[in-house]
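User: Could you walk me through two proteins back to back? I'd like the raw sequence and the structure tokens for each, with a short line separating them so I can tell where one ends and the next begins.

Assistant: Of course. Protein one, sequence then structure:
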Amino acid sequence: ARQCDLLCPQNYPLYIRSVPTENELKFHYTVHTSLDVVDEKISAMGKALVDQRELYLGLLYPTEDYKVYGYVTNSKVKFVMVVDSSNTALRDNEIRSMFRKLHNSYTDIMCNPFYNPGDRIHSRAFDTMVNSMMMQVC
């Protein structure tokens, strides 16, 4: 993965991680352009989304260099991941598994009584998990 973002329901970032860091602004722009597709998919799912436990949105859109994937929690927090298009070894079920791992780690943060929902995430454990996941994919 090149970038991993968590965005609150109002679309401001809760967490951003880029590898390499020099392209962070470019990837951040890519993530924000994908939010329209996320909202479109959520509204198309409608009530089915409420009943679903699996909130994986799949491929939001491909570009020449990157593929953008999305996931939404039941509290409307959006996870967006940008991966290289050249990485053909990465399958849909692996992306889904990565989002589940992210969601589980995010849930752990939300269970922390010292974390205020809506604040940026500053957690060494979460950073370590995201970095290991991203290095595994690169």
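----
Protein two, same layout:
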Amino acid sequence: MGVCSLATAFRQSAHLLLDQQYKLLLDTWSLGEIQEAFSLILEIEQHTNFHVLPPNHRQHSAIPHLQFIYDRLQKIFGLRLWAKVGQSLPQNETISLRCFRNLQALELLHIPVTSLKALQTLRPTLRSVIIVKGLTRLSDLFIRCGADKAGEFAWEQLQEAVLAHNSLYSLDHSLSLLPNLKILDLSHCELEDASALEYLPTVSLLDLSHNQLRLLPRLSPTATYSLIVLIANNNLFSHISGLHEMNNIEELDLRDNVLSLKEALSPIGALPHIRVLKISGNPITWDLNYRSQIIRQLNPATANHKVVFDDVPLTGQEYDEVGMHAVPAGSSYSPELLSSLSSLCSPVNPISPAHGLISQPLYSPEEADLIQLDPVDSQPASLVNDSAPVSLKNSGNGQPRRKSKKKRTRHIAITDPDNEDMDNDSIHLA
């Protein structure tokens, strides 16, 4: 698509480009071509920021179109950047985000964070970051800002960080730079140690599913108070010591772990607000009476609101059993019980997850490996309407409450309005 055609398409989609519900889709090759074309009007090498050249440099007929494209790119709110199959970045090559001045949502698919430049200039505006298969250390993103090699500065506006399908293995103290984060997705990250979550100031939804964790991580005091949704299915938990501190949890997913004794679930008795509980796929569910045993361990206060247990709402008779064997709030395991739980529950391969109400991954492992953008792959640029996977709203008592919302994605391709060949003065980008 030539510059003139791209500018025409941008004009036709101007109302969408400036809509916060849409993201502009670009592959790395097209972005590079666009930025190379900007060199006709911008002094990139001599200045830290873009500067418009004097009028005598504007002899080319495509200059007005380039200026319009550049103006629109500075104003868009959302960007999804991806690498086509066979177009991976050469070693030491970087991708500049310098022409995106107002981004609030950035999504990277199969692009190493360490290849990004000008990411630090977006720290004051970014509200959502999604990175799939492009991150090996959190500090590369939150401290160094990719190739910028920046320092430790807070991401004041960041509320959502979806970092699924990355090879992280462990976390680091850079989480302390996210003071207002509400949603953190670390699923499918091969995590063996998540102890650094204690640096996280606050979070409402935490997804640790599909990792290799054996211990439930401790959170900071403010984070234990703010946590509403904990997704921890498909790990290696034989007990859930520390859960009693997270007493504002409303939704808890512990499916497909190695919980084998009813005593292992006694900390749920300290959760008075629990509304959704999932433990299917654990050895404890092999007991035909497990449902009744667990219901009796629930906090008595849960009888005052609707509770869904393993996708089935509690019956009237089950409500009568709620709290009969609940452990007092604040109680923890004895050392003897912890030793017993750990020795009885040897690691096993997690069972395939059942689809439930809580855990709705952004991308499956297969999709993360093969992800391309369907019909719009053939276009250098397109728009996508991408609603957040989870939204949180304020409840009556001032606490954020999770609101389930069906994800609906709408693609709008930016295509060439004319099939005629461009004139000789046009600059072709693809």
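The CA atoms of residues 144 and 207 lie 24 Å apart.

Let me know if you want the two compared in more detail.
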